[in-house]
Write a structure and sequence with these properties.
The chain is 11% helix and 38% strand. With 351 residues, the chain is mainly beta.
């Protein structure tokens, strides 16, 4: 009788979020003999350090908020649960998922996730996650304030980095070349919508549904003032027709507005987009309409493009904001209607 020799492999993955100085979903994950490496129970506890993040402190609460964002993705049954790590220590091989601040003055990473997975054959493949620990580097200054794009360096957005590292903790790897929470480079895909919601992007949700699928459904499209620039993220803005960024617009002349939209839901959507010039940052139908377009968007996809528009000659001279709204007629029954519009970050002077 032939007996297969047991192959035992315990793998430690170290995945960090780094900084940079200067339309199809492609989420990725670790595999074992072709099987997706996941938490076998479709849930796990994350033990928040009460030393680093005292109970009910802003750090504790905002870490829980970001767990919640992963928990409520339609089409996925994965859940994070909250535990407490009270001993003031952490160890990446103790079988306990710990979340903590640590000072690493000689390391450049903002956040890091240490994961241990099993992958071995014993009368069938045994695989899955054993442990994931999340460390936030206090070499840097942190804030829980809204990330608008005005400040892209220090203090860094705790929510953006925590959401990213928790994505690693549940099994997603880096996904670059698109707006994504799991983009390698800070500030990832950035927040969503006018109210700067730090939520998972379409690509992240697509990956989570593949790792931990269920039959729940949901529809949601969103607007963003951020776009992918090939590596990390950049801010959308207005350019001349030759592509030069500008803050000064002349009446009667053509310009281009860079914009980004996403399909966060579980089905393909036909998304209508309308563009406006406004006297304030709240883009509404009462503002000056300057054009429209539409996209057919598969689940998890995004579109980044330029919209050419002409500045109306009847506008008064002064400061304005340009922006856009998606699904203006509410033809899509969405879970979140608050992420459907955005004004670009900087005002423009029209004369």
């Amino acid at each position: 009788m032939n007996i297969k020799r047991t192959l035992l492999v315990i793998v430690i993955s170290i995945i960090s979020l780094v900084m940079i100085s200067s339309v199809v979903s492609a989420a990725s994950w670790k595999t074992c003999d072709g099987n997706k490496q996941t938490w076998r129970s479709d849930w796990t506890n994350m033990y928040l350090s009460t030393t680093s993040m005292p109970v009910d402190s802003v750090w504790d609460l905002h870490a829980q908020y970001k767990m919640y964002e992963w928990n409520v993705v339609n089409g996925s049954n994965f859940k994070f649960y909250v535990g407490r790590d009270t001993d003031g220590t952490h160890n990446n091989s103790n079988g306990k998922n710990e979340v903590y601040f640590e000072n690493k003055p000689n390391e450049s990473y903002l956040g890091i996730t240490w994961s241990r997975t099993k992958c071995y054959w014993l009368f069938g493949w045994k695989y899955g996650y054993n442990e994931s620990d999340v460390g936030i580097n206090t070499r840097y200054y942190w804030t829980t304030s809204d990330f608008t794009g005005n400040v892209t360096g220090s203090p860094y957005s705790y929510e953006l980095v925590m959401l990213h590292e928790l994505g690693h903790a549940l099994g997603l790897w880096h996904s670059d070349g698109k707006p994504a929470t799991m983009n390698t480079y800070y500030y990832n895909g950035g927040p969503i919508g006018q109210y700067n919601q730090v939520k998972t992007h379409g690509d992240d949700r697509f990956g989570l549904r593949l790792l931990y699928p269920d039959n729940t459904t949901g529809r949601d499209v969103s607007a963003s003032r951020f776009r992918n620039n090939g590596g990390g993220s950049a801010i959308n803005y207005v350019t001349t027709t030759s592509g030069d960024r500008t803050f000064n617009l002349k009446k009667g002349q053509s310009y281009r507005m860079k914009y980004t939209i996403e399909n966060l839901g579980t089905q393909t959507e036909n998304v209508n987009v309308k563009f406006y010039i406004s006297t304030n940052t709240y883009i509404s139908t009462g503002d000056t309409y300057v054009g429209a377009t539409s996209w057919s968007m598969p689940t998890g996809s995004y579109a980044t493009a330029d919209k050419t528009f002409i500045v109306p000659t009847n506008l008064a001279t002064g400061l304005y904001y340009v922006g856009f709204r998606v699904d203006l007629s509410n033809t899509i029954p969405e879970h979140d209607e608050n992420n459907n519009f955005i004004s670009l970050l900087n005002s423009v002077n029209i004369n």
